[in-house]
Design goal:
Layout lengths: L1 E2 L8 E4 L2 E11 L7 E8 L5 E7 L3 E4 L2 E12 L2 E6 L5 E4 L15 E7 L5 E5 L3 E9 L12 E6 L4 E5 L7 E5 L5 E5 L4
Antiparallel strand pairs: 1-6, 2-3, 2-6, 3-4, 4-5, 7-8, 7-10, 8-9, 10-11, 12-13, 12-15, 13-14, 15-16
């Protein structure tokens, strides 16, 4: 069993029957009282965000998490279907467990976080930046590269991304999956 001195960002903790990921943490010291450790926690199996305080040295229950690479196959009525790239075992994950489901495309690899105690999926993380093709966008004009004005564009997954005026249909762009923002145009290699 771990103690409060083991707390770090990204650690998964079990409290009150629920799993929480540590988003931020710190130590409060006062002259008269014992030190206290506080943490901002985001629910892994629920949608709650809470803050919790422990006495320094108090025991906490840490959950072992394995990160495995899976390939996205398809979406159906049961959820999002992924396949383990090593064992070819398939799992179904619900949409609320995926960090950016709007950017998932068939055949794309993602990391699935698996609870080491129960072998059940806890979440899916897409790569931080992915390349997508623009399927619809208003045509750009010559000379539109000077301003930072943005226009809406639809990418191959159906998601909407705000892009610069010079981006046209058929071009590939790099998108940040955490923020949903346009990063850069991807040049085709010849």
């Amino acid at each position: 069993m771990a103690s409060t001195s083991d707390i770090r960002t990204g650690l998964i903790i079990k409290m009150d029957g629920s799993l929480y990921s540590v988003v931020d943490f710190g130590l409060n010291k006062t002259a008269r009282a014992a030190a206290k450790v506080w943490a901002k926690l985001k629910g892994v199996d629920n949608s709650r965000t809470i803050e919790h305080t422990w006495n320094s040295g108090e025991k906490i229950e840490v959950v072992t998490v394995m990160k495995k690479e899976y390939q996205f196959l398809y979406k159906d009525d049961t959820g999002y279907n992924f396949m383990d790239t090593e064992t070819f075992e398939q799992i179904v994950v619900q949409e609320d467990m995926i960090n950016a489901p709007q950017f998932l495309k068939d055949g794309q690899n993602a990391h699935v976080l698996i609870n080491g105690d129960t072998d059940k999926p806890m979440g899916v993380e897409l790569p931080e930046k992915i390349v997508l093709e623009v399927t619809y966008s208003e045509p750009g004009m010559k000379g539109d590269t000077a301003t930072k004005t943005l226009k809406p564009a639809t990418v191959e997954t159906g998601a909407k991304v705000m892009v610069p005026l010079f981006i046209n249909e058929g071009e590939k762009i790099r998108v940040n999956t955490k923020s949903g923002d346009y990063v850069e145009r991807v040049k085709e290699e010849k």
